[in-house]
């Protein structure tokens, strides 16, 4: 592929993009502009047992704008979820993803909806990336009928099987063998698709990861294990939990790549590369160097085990949305005002979705007994008082 | 060294405070003022005292050290005993549980914390096959003085994978002891007993009880305080119906007993404290007195703790029963998240009242199918 190194930002503007300074009359077609653009990733990839892909990533103005909009939506959604939790409209656990948006967005850009993704409990943005709606997210968080799991799952159990999203898992590490199982089925069915199994640095030490990885390598499964390394497993820093925190190397005989997880384009490149690799050569590990601004969950302040300076430092230097904003402005793809307008629109979309979700009713009491089985054989099922509340499983 | 102190329960009166005679002769004069103590504090103080008394006792689990405990149960222990005795583990239950059991084989006395017992399923092979059965298989050579502790059962809105009650599972295994405290007195006395016990003990706490306060007497606060394993406590004496419960459900049962009292039904509430060994004699003695039984638990009904209690009563005291046995349990479905469904999935005070009334033939029998 042609590599064009950036000499100066404006040199890449084509005729279509030549700024029409009196543009109040015309709407610049940035959102549909598919003129190819080549951008260098912030840092090079580091590889283990393989050759790293190129630092030059092909993209388009349309894609960059969509990155901006989607990540802004994710960011706003997570911040709104924080408020809803504090207002006690969301109960139980709530694990927020703000800071890590580039991983979800970059991954979607590098794969298709026929590929599968499975992750742990920090799943709100991954669900959105797979095509879920804000209404489904907020309704599920508040335990309402219109939630993606009809209110029965909660924050940690979002799913969207029709676009290859298999959840949403509460037990640390369990999603990894499950992901390898999805890959097994994909290979078995000759679908030419792959599975991305996401996990954190805390889960990276789980034994079941290595068991599943061994089998995936033995059987050449198209499984890509993606470590979203935000450097803290709940309150434990990576160096206190892992003898070797070089997670991309932990596969030993399985190739790995270390990626700047705050750079959506780098993530996109890595996922494309990994998909090609997995279809031909079996499993691969991607380590995304990322960061979460919130604590582990809403009951963790996130500041007892890391300094506020560290958090604000990352926000200033590496924020994924700011990076895309700077890129868009540097290449003259949109004005600052246009980007701010997008953020205003996003804010309104989120607020509207929350309002609508608040009106969604709670599930019917009869839902207590639905979906226990696919096929219940008419078995009796009991409520807390077995002589008062009982049903039949269809 | 310290020995288990025998508990003498008052013959009548049903006072919530157990009267203990310390083995060690003690000239201290306890004030009669009763202090309030949170369950969390009770557990923390029990761990602190046992670690202080025996250098072989150590604590390990996720976030128990620097984070001060996910639920602050181990607060201050790292500072006091150092990183050799309070160990933060990676998120790898199978690994660190096996390591704990191995340390117990060698003679140390580990306390292994599971952030919730849902995660103990990753380690259950070690709890059962490596810990519970070893003393038997080795004909007494390899004893396993280990405690597995942590929150068990439902919290609030935590969904299907984080709300499971494991009492029935662990209590079915010979070689294990299974304890479940309700009050702060239970928490202190049973945890101390568990740590001193030479066998593997599964200690099932409850997250929603951690912040609850209970009155504790000076005897309970004494560092030699200990409760016997295998003895239930009659929390409230009564004569019309026996209600058995453990952990958080004891609180609900006491509330139900209040409501029943207003309707002229005198309920006897038994706090099991020990699921294995189950105090069959106390339960049967109670049913022989009241002639009616309602078992209440949070876990799933089939093959549950209540099922075992009902079987025991039917086997031992059939002639004394004046009504069919009643079971209240968690609904027979994975725990739903939505608040209204969750309320239906967990025993409520009304359920206990209703079942007690049925046992007393005070209500319309058997509602139609839902």
Q: Compute the gyration radius of chain B: what is it?
A: 20 Å
Strand-residue fraction of chain A? 5-15%
Q: What portion of the residues of chain B fall into strands of 2 or more residues?
A: 15-25%
Number of helices of chain B: 13
Mean pLDDT reading of chain B = 92
**SSE-based structural type of chain A:** alpha/beta
Q: How many β-strands of chain B, per DSSP? A: 16
Low-confidence stretches of chain A: 1-27
Largest sheet of chain B: 7 strands, mixed
- Unreliable sequence segments of chain B: 1-29
- CATH-assigned homologous superfamily of the largest domain in chain B: Thiamin diphosphate (ThDP)-binding fold, Pyr/PP domains
Most extensive interface, chain pair and sizes: A-B, 53 and 53 residues
- CATH topology (level 3) name of the largest domain in chain B: Rossmann fold
What is the oligomeric state here? heterodimer
Radius of gyration of chain A: 22 Å
Strand order of the largest sheet of chain A: 2-9-10-6-5-4
Large-scale geometry of chain A:
globular
């Amino acid at each position: 592929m042609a590599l064009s190194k950036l000499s100066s930002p404006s040199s890449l503007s084509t005729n279509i993009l030549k700024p029409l300074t009196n543009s109040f009359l015309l709407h610049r077609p940035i959102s549909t502009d598919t003129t190819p653009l080549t951008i260098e990733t912030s840092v090079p990839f580091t590889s283990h047992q393989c050759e790293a892909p190129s630092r030059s990533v092909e993209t388009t103005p349309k894609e960059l704008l969509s990155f901006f909009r989607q990540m802004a939506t994710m960011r706003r959604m997570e911040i709104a979820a924080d408020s809803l939790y504090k207002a006690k409209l969301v109960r139980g656990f709530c694990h927020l993803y703000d800071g890590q948006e580039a991983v979800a967005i970059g991954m979607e850009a590098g794969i298709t909806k026929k590929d599968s993704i499975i992750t742990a409990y920090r799943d709100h943005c991954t669900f959105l990336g797979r095509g879920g709606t804000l209404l489904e997210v907020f309704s599920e968080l508040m335990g309402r009928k219109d939630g993606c799991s009809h209110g029965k799952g909660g924050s940690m159990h979002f799913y969207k099987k029709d676009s290859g999203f298999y959840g949403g898992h509460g037990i640390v590490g369990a999603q990894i063998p499950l992901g390898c199982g999805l890959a097994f089925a994909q290979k078995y069915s000759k679908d030419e698709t792959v599975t991305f199994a996401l996990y954190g640095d805390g889960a990276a030490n789980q034994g079941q990861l290595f068991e599943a990885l061994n089998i995936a390598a033995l059987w050449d499964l198209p499984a890509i294990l993606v470590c979203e390394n935000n450097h803290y497993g709940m309150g434990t820093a990576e160096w206190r939990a892992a003898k070797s925190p070089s997670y991309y190397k932990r596969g030993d005989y399985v190739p790995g790549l270390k990626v700047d997880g705050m750079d959506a384009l780098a993530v996109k490149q890595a996922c494309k590369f990994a998909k090609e690799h997995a279809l031909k050569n079996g499993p691969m590990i991607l380590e995304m160097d990322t960061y979460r601004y919130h604590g582990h969950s809403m009951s963790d302040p996130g500041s007892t085990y890391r300094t506020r300076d560290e958090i604000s430092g990352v926000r200033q230097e590496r924020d994924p949305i700011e990076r895309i904003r700077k890129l868009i402005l540097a290449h003259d793809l949109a004005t600052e005002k246009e980007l701010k307008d997008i953020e205003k629109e996003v804010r309104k979309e989120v607020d509207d979705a929350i309002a609508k979700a608040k009106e969604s009713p709670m599930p019917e009491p009869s839902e207590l007994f639905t979906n226990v089985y696919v096929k219940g054989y008419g078995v009796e099922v009991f409520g807390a008082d077995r002589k008062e509340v009982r049903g039949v499983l269809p | 060294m310290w020995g288990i102190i025998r508990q003498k329960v008052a013959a009548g009166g049903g006072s919530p405070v157990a009267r203990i005679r310390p083995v060690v002769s003690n000239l201290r004069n306890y004030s009669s003022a009763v202090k309030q103590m949170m369950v969390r504090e009770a557990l923390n103080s029990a761990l602190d005292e046992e670690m202080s008394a025996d250098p072989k006792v150590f604590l390990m689990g996720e976030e128990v050290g620097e984070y001060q405990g996910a639920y602050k149960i181990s607060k201050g222990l790292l500072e006091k005993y150092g990183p050799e005795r309070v160990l933060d583990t990676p998120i790898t239950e199978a690994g660190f549980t096996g390591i704990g059991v191995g340390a117990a084989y060698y003679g140390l006395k580990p306390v292994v914390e599971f952030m919730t017992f849902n995660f103990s399923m990753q380690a259950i092979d070690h709890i059962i096959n490596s810990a519970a059965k070893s003393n038997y298989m080795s004909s007494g050579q390899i004893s396993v003085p280990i405690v597995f502790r942590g929150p068990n059962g439902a919290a609030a809105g935590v969904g299907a994978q984080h709300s499971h009650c494991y009492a029935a599972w662990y209590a079915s295994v010979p070689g294990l002891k299974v304890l479940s405290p309700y009050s702060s007195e239970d928490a202190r006395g049973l945890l101390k007993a568990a740590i001193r016990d030479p066998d593997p003990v599964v200690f099932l706490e409850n997250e929603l009880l951690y912040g609850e306060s209970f009155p504790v007497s000076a005897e309970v606060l004494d560092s030699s305080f200990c409760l016997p394993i295998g003895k239930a406590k009659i929390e409230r004496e009564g004569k019309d119906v026996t209600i058995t419960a453990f952990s958080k459900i004891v609180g609900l049962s006491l509330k139900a007993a209040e409501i029943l009292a207003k309707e002229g039904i005198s309920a006897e509430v038994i706090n099991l404290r020990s699921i294995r060994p189950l105090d069959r004699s106390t339960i049967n003695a109670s049913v022989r007195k009241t002639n009616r039984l309602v078992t209440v638990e949070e876990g799933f009904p089939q093959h549950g703790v209540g099922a075992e209690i009902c079987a025991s009563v039917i086997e031992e005291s059939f002639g004394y029963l004046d009504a069919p046995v009643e079971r209240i349990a968690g609904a027979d479905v994975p725990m739903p998240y939505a608040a209204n469904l969750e309320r239906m999935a967990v025993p409520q005070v009304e359920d206990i009242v209703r079942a007690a009334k049925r046992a007393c033939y005070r209500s319309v029998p058997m509602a139609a199918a839902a």
